[in-house]
Amino acid sequence: MTGHTTARQRLTAELLDALRTDGGVRVVTGEPGCGRSTFLDHAARLFRAGPVRHVRADRAHELDHALRTATASGPLLLCVDDADLWDAPSRAALARAAARIRETGVRTTLLLTVAGHRPPPPELSDLPVLRLGPLTPAEAAPLIRERADSEVAPAVREELITEAEGNPALLLALVRRLSPARLSGRRALPRPLVDGEVLADVAGDRLPDDPGGLLLTTAAAARATGEEDADADLVLRACRAATDAPLPDLLTRSEGRLRFRSALMARAVHALAAPEHRRAAHLALAEAAREPEDILPLLHRSWAVPDPALAASLASAATDPASTTPPALRRTALVRAAELTPDGAERARRHLAAAEQTLLAGGVADALRLLDQARGPSAPPPVRGGAELLRGAVLLADGPVEDARESFLLAADLLPPHAAARATLGAADAAWSAGDPASCLSALAPTRTPPTLPLAQACVRVPQEPAAPDEHRGGVAQVGATAPRPEGVAPVGDVSRDHRDGMRAVLLARFDLAAAPLRRVVENGLQGTDPDRLLRSAAAALMLGDVTSARRAGGRALAAARTHSSAALEPRALEYLAYAELRAGRHQLARTHAEEGLRTAERTGQRNTAAHHHAVLALAASIEGEADLVTEHAEAALRTARRHGLAQAETLAHWAAARADLGAGRPREAAQRLGPLVRPGPRRGHFAVWMLAVPCFVEAAASAGRPQLAAGVVEDFTLWAACGADPQAPSQLLRCRALLAAPDTADELYLRALDRHDDTAGDFERARTELLYGKWLRRRRRLREARTRLEEARLGFERCGAPLWAQQAAAELRAGGAAPTTVPAASSGAGDLARLTPQQLRIARYVAEGATNREVALSLSVSTRTVDYHLRNVFATLGLRSRVELVRLVEQEEKTGARL
């Protein structure tokens, strides 16, 4: 069974469940090829409550009899496919049957399908609608595997998924089109991959006549901008149509924009038009523009009249620093300029500039194809170097990081000095991600020779690449409205030099030399709005342990990336924010940023960045006690980390799994998992991360009765705490020493640790210290003091949403003879939702708002299976039987002010 089938069946099952308490009628719609008929077949197979009847237009008169039968004998499912093709009297009968079902509550479910690329029939327009959305990549991949007759290369599979835009029929048409050699990657794919022949196979018979050219002109205008809609005034001027002219059924107008009801139909209209008609439409749009020298009119003119003389004008408009043109449109203009350019060297420069803008727009695979065209033999060395520079950036965000390092080093050999410095910073970034401090320092050294590492493995920073933000971490060289240089690179200023010097000093444990240059990087970035400089500022702040500045710089970088439409930078900015929040002890905020960052990273093809977000989510879930989420996100991070050599993300994922063991009361398992990560040896974790896990290991080893294993790593942790790069480290160090100390000194160490916690934010770490101190006091029969500490720990864990840890504190209280205040085990009044875990609360809230399980999974960046699991537990915990009861409970508790 394919992922597509599984997803549709899951969605169908959810719908049938909801319809039992929600009026019993739904109109299923979607664009051609979305699988409406298949959806109806799934519903028929899954309906177990009673008989299923498929009703045709010529049997519409049987509807009344079917409803009477259902009332007498039991539930019934009525299925009507392509109801929009019925004649008007039959549709009227169908509408009457739907009204009766909704008004009288007869035990009948009615599912109708109608085409989504034109307006619904008036008789059915008031019925509730379910629109089938596009397939997700996870749903499309198994569909390709099932339907392909041969092996499909990963790169080919990803391009098929991208080009199909989630349309199942188009995806299958593409698979049928390609030979085994092309599917396996042994032969190049045809260009364009989706052409008129493929689109005619899926949607050609649904295209209406277009006598006024309005459909084609709208499609041409949208194609130029890459958006889903077009300026209505421009299109109507180009067609010489009245502003109040009636629109074809395929189009809709809103707020001055024209839009196709179906993106597939827009592509088909443009691709299947005669070439002379397409050229005429583009020429009309160019002539109708108010500013003929703007980038869009030039682009339309180049498609209408392929004149090489237009290439320079297009390239100039696309690289104008004063322009606010988004990266996707700049990319289109530069590609077209390259196509019109006869000179090989200049064509390579324009392909390189187009690749840079493609990365800014979030198109990784497309950028790599453009870079291949910029590396030809006719390209001069600076252009080839620029191509390697960008290729390294792409691989750093979405590929093996060791390959990224080699691309950066090759770029450094080909580029002039100012750009070569940026390439060496990129090589250092890649070495950092791979967990190779010697290579990192080698890249930063003037001669790039391997230096010694006296304290590099102990003196490290936050879980993030040190030089990260320069221009490489997210795969871009410039951002926003800044125009690319002809070589695709930009000069390196003092900020980059300061960042390099500061990072090198940190790796060499020369913190006396690191502070000044890193502080200049922080301050310089915060004075402007350049996303790259802001991200450099965030990285430097994290190296300094200035979490407040890191959060501020990350937030500003995110806002700037969105302002400049730099899609590739958003997941990077969210990654910095997530890590900074974790370091500040705000794990729930970290989770919020990481969930959003994961969605944007997956959307822009940045799997390495996505792995870091998965690791953050696993760490956050390990605090909240969501074992299944820890496993899911840790495994997702590890899959990419192992394939791409991401030692940093791998270490974080293992740490999350171990902390989940510790929170669940399994210290021996936690110690076994963490031991190889933190103790010297070939399996030791990433040099910038392993000491962050030391406090967990010390606690696990001490709780498992093996404190001798932790003595050596505590001394290493002392060096880390002295670096000043981790606000929590001093209090954690005192806690670790208390765990290993003799009874006559442990008491004072615990109290000193609690005093140091007062200097930092975050309830979780303080609550852990209170819990361990309370356990220590109870075992020494100092029960009154123990109860005070344990109650503080329980309350602290509850405040930060760590229920399993709160249960540990409650168990210790009970063992000491206390009866802590708890939420009643069963209650039908206000406050029931307080019994749910944080993740269960989130899911309950989404479901109460009407979201399907699939929509909840997309919102929370988890699998639908995980949502199913949690929702079953929600129903069991609250004693509910349906989603409607959950909605009522949520509404009731909102009215009474209960916590959601």
TrEMBL record:
Natural source organism: Streptomyces albogriseolus
Protein name: DNA-binding CsgD family transcriptional regulator
Keywords on record: DNA-binding
Species classification: Bacteria, Bacillati, Actinomycetota, Actinomycetes, Kitasatosporales
